[in-house]
Please model this.
Amino acid sequence: MKLQDRLKRTLLLAVIGFAIGGAVGGWSLLQSTNTENQDDGGGHEIVSAKIGGTFSLVDQDGVARTEKDYAGKYKLIYFGFTYCPAICPTELSKMAEAYLSLPSDIQQNIQPIFISVDPDRDTPAVMKGYVGLFMPQLVGLTGTPAQVEAVKKDFKVYAVKVPEGSGSDEYTVDHSSMMYYLTPDGQTVAMFKTGDSVEKIAERIKGSLQLE
Ligand code: NI
Model:
Protein backbone atom coordinates (compact mmCIF):
# COMPACT_ATOMS: atom_id res chain seq x y z
CA MET A 1 0.00 0.00 0.00
CA LYS A 2 1.33 3.44 -0.90
CA LEU A 3 1.88 5.90 1.88
CA GLN A 4 -0.75 8.19 0.44
CA ASP A 5 -3.31 5.38 0.39
CA ARG A 6 -2.41 4.45 3.95
CA LEU A 7 -2.97 8.00 5.07
CA LYS A 8 -6.30 8.10 3.28
CA ARG A 9 -7.35 4.89 4.99
CA THR A 10 -6.26 6.15 8.39
CA LEU A 11 -8.21 9.34 7.86
CA LEU A 12 -11.27 7.40 6.73
CA LEU A 13 -11.11 5.15 9.80
CA ALA A 14 -10.78 8.19 12.04
CA VAL A 15 -13.89 9.69 10.46
CA ILE A 16 -15.81 6.44 10.89
CA GLY A 17 -14.59 6.12 14.48
CA PHE A 18 -15.63 9.67 15.19
CA ALA A 19 -19.09 9.05 13.73
CA ILE A 20 -19.55 5.93 15.85
CA GLY A 21 -18.17 7.66 18.94
CA GLY A 22 -20.57 10.54 18.36
CA ALA A 23 -23.52 8.22 17.97
CA VAL A 24 -22.64 6.28 21.14
CA GLY A 25 -21.96 9.50 23.04
CA GLY A 26 -25.31 10.95 22.00
CA TRP A 27 -27.00 7.73 22.95
CA SER A 28 -25.32 7.71 26.41
CA LEU A 29 -26.50 11.27 27.00
CA LEU A 30 -30.02 10.19 26.10
CA GLN A 31 -29.77 7.36 28.61
CA SER A 32 -28.65 9.58 31.46
CA THR A 33 -31.36 12.16 30.87
CA ASN A 34 -34.20 9.78 30.25
CA THR A 35 -33.81 7.04 32.82
CA GLU A 36 -37.41 6.98 34.07
CA ASN A 37 -38.57 5.52 30.81
CA GLN A 38 -35.98 2.76 30.74
CA ASP A 39 -37.70 0.07 32.79
CA ASP A 40 -39.48 -2.96 31.43
CA GLY A 41 -41.76 -3.16 34.47
CA GLY A 42 -39.89 -6.16 35.84
CA GLY A 43 -37.11 -4.27 37.58
CA HIS A 44 -34.64 -4.29 34.67
CA GLU A 45 -33.61 -1.05 33.12
CA ILE A 46 -33.37 -1.52 29.37
CA VAL A 47 -30.45 -0.03 27.47
CA SER A 48 -32.38 -0.19 24.24
CA ALA A 49 -35.13 -2.53 23.16
CA LYS A 50 -33.71 -2.22 19.66
CA ILE A 51 -30.24 -3.63 20.44
CA GLY A 52 -29.80 -7.33 19.91
CA GLY A 53 -31.55 -10.32 21.37
CA THR A 54 -31.85 -12.76 18.49
CA PHE A 55 -29.47 -14.89 16.47
CA SER A 56 -29.33 -18.02 14.34
CA LEU A 57 -25.76 -19.33 14.32
CA VAL A 58 -23.61 -22.46 14.72
CA ASP A 59 -21.64 -23.31 17.85
CA GLN A 60 -18.06 -24.59 18.18
CA ASP A 61 -19.30 -28.18 17.91
CA GLY A 62 -21.16 -27.48 14.66
CA VAL A 63 -24.61 -27.45 16.32
CA ALA A 64 -27.17 -24.90 15.08
CA ARG A 65 -28.03 -22.44 17.87
CA THR A 66 -30.47 -19.61 18.46
CA GLU A 67 -31.05 -17.44 21.52
CA LYS A 68 -33.74 -19.95 22.55
CA ASP A 69 -31.00 -22.50 23.31
CA TYR A 70 -29.85 -20.24 26.15
CA ALA A 71 -33.33 -19.30 27.41
CA GLY A 72 -33.53 -18.83 31.15
CA LYS A 73 -30.00 -17.47 31.36
CA TYR A 74 -28.53 -14.01 31.30
CA LYS A 75 -26.13 -13.66 28.38
CA LEU A 76 -22.79 -11.89 28.26
CA ILE A 77 -21.90 -11.50 24.58
CA TYR A 78 -18.79 -10.22 22.82
CA PHE A 79 -18.30 -9.87 19.05
CA GLY A 80 -14.86 -10.24 17.47
CA PHE A 81 -12.66 -12.61 15.48
CA THR A 82 -10.10 -15.23 16.40
CA TYR A 83 -7.30 -13.65 14.33
CA CYS A 84 -7.66 -10.37 16.26
CA PRO A 85 -4.20 -9.56 17.61
CA ALA A 86 -5.06 -7.57 20.73
CA ILE A 87 -8.49 -6.23 21.59
CA CYS A 88 -10.53 -9.43 21.32
CA PRO A 89 -8.19 -11.54 23.48
CA THR A 90 -8.08 -8.76 26.07
CA GLU A 91 -11.86 -8.38 26.20
CA LEU A 92 -12.49 -12.12 26.28
CA SER A 93 -9.95 -12.52 29.09
CA LYS A 94 -11.82 -9.80 30.95
CA MET A 95 -15.13 -11.57 30.35
CA ALA A 96 -13.65 -14.84 31.63
CA GLU A 97 -12.15 -13.18 34.68
CA ALA A 98 -15.43 -11.44 35.56
CA TYR A 99 -17.45 -14.61 35.04
CA LEU A 100 -15.07 -16.82 37.03
CA SER A 101 -15.05 -14.33 39.91
CA LEU A 102 -18.79 -14.88 40.46
CA PRO A 103 -20.18 -17.40 42.97
CA SER A 104 -21.13 -20.67 41.26
CA ASP A 105 -24.88 -20.19 41.83
CA ILE A 106 -24.68 -16.94 39.86
CA GLN A 107 -22.41 -18.48 37.19
CA GLN A 108 -25.12 -21.07 36.53
CA ASN A 109 -27.47 -18.26 35.47
CA ILE A 110 -25.03 -16.66 33.04
CA GLN A 111 -24.06 -17.80 29.53
CA PRO A 112 -20.85 -16.20 28.21
CA ILE A 113 -20.82 -16.11 24.39
CA PHE A 114 -18.27 -15.07 21.75
CA ILE A 115 -19.75 -14.34 18.30
CA SER A 116 -17.42 -14.18 15.28
CA VAL A 117 -17.62 -11.32 12.79
CA ASP A 118 -15.20 -13.22 10.50
CA PRO A 119 -17.20 -16.27 9.34
CA ASP A 120 -14.87 -17.00 6.40
CA ARG A 121 -11.95 -17.87 8.67
CA ASP A 122 -13.74 -18.67 11.94
CA THR A 123 -15.12 -22.12 11.26
CA PRO A 124 -16.65 -24.08 14.17
CA ALA A 125 -13.34 -25.98 14.54
CA VAL A 126 -11.31 -22.76 14.72
CA MET A 127 -13.79 -21.35 17.23
CA LYS A 128 -13.56 -24.49 19.37
CA GLY A 129 -9.81 -24.18 19.70
CA TYR A 130 -10.08 -20.48 20.44
CA VAL A 131 -12.84 -20.31 23.07
CA GLY A 132 -11.15 -23.17 24.93
CA LEU A 133 -8.19 -20.86 25.58
CA PHE A 134 -10.35 -18.67 27.81
CA MET A 135 -12.70 -20.94 29.78
CA PRO A 136 -14.71 -24.11 29.15
CA GLN A 137 -17.98 -22.25 29.78
CA LEU A 138 -17.43 -19.86 26.86
CA VAL A 139 -19.62 -20.71 23.84
CA GLY A 140 -18.26 -19.72 20.41
CA LEU A 141 -20.80 -18.93 17.70
CA THR A 142 -20.18 -18.46 13.99
CA GLY A 143 -22.22 -19.17 10.87
CA THR A 144 -22.68 -18.38 7.22
CA PRO A 145 -21.79 -14.84 6.12
CA ALA A 146 -25.54 -14.11 5.87
CA GLN A 147 -26.19 -15.39 9.42
CA VAL A 148 -23.33 -13.29 10.78
CA GLU A 149 -24.55 -10.20 8.89
CA ALA A 150 -28.00 -10.67 10.42
CA VAL A 151 -26.71 -10.85 14.02
CA LYS A 152 -24.39 -7.87 13.43
CA LYS A 153 -27.37 -5.86 12.22
CA ASP A 154 -29.51 -6.94 15.16
CA PHE A 155 -26.85 -5.91 17.72
CA LYS A 156 -25.75 -2.85 15.72
CA VAL A 157 -22.19 -4.18 15.52
CA TYR A 158 -19.77 -2.45 13.17
CA ALA A 159 -17.27 -4.83 11.50
CA VAL A 160 -15.65 -4.61 8.05
CA LYS A 161 -12.85 -6.50 6.33
CA VAL A 162 -9.76 -4.44 5.58
CA PRO A 163 -7.09 -5.78 3.16
CA GLU A 164 -3.70 -6.18 4.78
CA GLY A 165 -0.27 -7.10 3.49
CA SER A 166 0.71 -7.99 -0.07
CA GLY A 167 -1.17 -11.29 -0.46
CA SER A 168 -4.65 -10.89 -1.94
CA ASP A 169 -6.22 -13.09 0.77
CA GLU A 170 -4.78 -11.24 3.72
CA TYR A 171 -7.13 -9.06 5.70
CA THR A 172 -7.95 -7.90 9.16
CA VAL A 173 -11.36 -6.90 10.50
CA ASP A 174 -12.01 -3.47 11.92
CA HIS A 175 -14.79 -3.84 14.46
CA SER A 176 -16.57 -2.13 17.30
CA SER A 177 -15.68 -3.52 20.74
CA MET A 178 -18.63 -3.70 23.10
CA MET A 179 -19.71 -6.37 25.58
CA TYR A 180 -23.48 -6.83 25.74
CA TYR A 181 -25.37 -8.01 28.81
CA LEU A 182 -28.82 -9.42 28.18
CA THR A 183 -31.62 -10.62 30.43
CA PRO A 184 -32.98 -14.17 29.99
CA ASP A 185 -35.77 -12.73 27.80
CA GLY A 186 -33.26 -11.05 25.50
CA GLN A 187 -33.32 -7.40 26.67
CA THR A 188 -29.96 -5.66 26.48
CA VAL A 189 -29.60 -4.08 29.93
CA ALA A 190 -25.93 -3.11 29.88
CA MET A 191 -23.08 -2.55 27.46
CA PHE A 192 -19.45 -2.56 28.61
CA LYS A 193 -16.71 -0.61 26.84
CA THR A 194 -13.05 -1.63 26.54
CA GLY A 195 -12.21 0.71 29.43
CA ASP A 196 -14.64 -0.99 31.83
CA SER A 197 -13.03 -3.14 34.51
CA VAL A 198 -13.52 -6.77 35.47
CA GLU A 199 -15.00 -5.54 38.77
CA LYS A 200 -17.54 -3.28 37.05
CA ILE A 201 -18.78 -6.15 34.89
CA ALA A 202 -18.96 -8.58 37.83
CA GLU A 203 -20.80 -6.04 40.04
CA ARG A 204 -23.32 -5.28 37.30
CA ILE A 205 -24.08 -8.98 36.88
CA LYS A 206 -24.47 -9.52 40.63
CA GLY A 207 -26.70 -6.44 40.87
CA SER A 208 -29.07 -7.65 38.17
CA LEU A 209 -29.49 -11.05 39.79
CA GLN A 210 -30.23 -9.51 43.18
CA LEU A 211 -33.24 -7.74 41.61
CA GLU A 212 -35.09 -11.03 41.28
NI1 NI B 1 -10.87 -7.71 17.85
